[in-house]
Amino acid sequence: MGNPKAFLSIPRKEAGYRPIHDRITDYGEVEQTLNTEDRRLQASRCMDCGVPFCHWSCPLGNKQPEWQDKLYHNDIKAAYVLLTQTDDFPEFTGRVCPALCEKGCVLNKQHEPVTIRENEGAIVERAFAEGYVVPKPPKSRSGFKVAVIGSGPAGLACANQLNKRGHLVTVYEKNEAPGGLLRFGIPDFKLNKSIIDRRIDLMKAEGITFETGVKAGSDISADELLKRYDAVCVAIGAEVPRNLPVEGRDLKGVYFALQLLQQQNRVNAGVEIEKHERISAKNKRVLVIGGGDTGSDCVGTAHRQGALSVTQIEIMPKPPEGDNPDTPWPYWPMVLKTSSSHLEGCTRRWLLDTRRFLSDDNGCVSGVEVEAVEWEKDADTGRMTLRHTGQTEVIEADMVLLAMGFTNPVSEGLLTQLGVRLTNRGTIAVDESQRSSADKVFAAGDVVSGASLVVRCIASGRNAALAIHRYLTAK
Question: Is the pTM of this model over 0.85?
Answer without folding.
Answer: yes
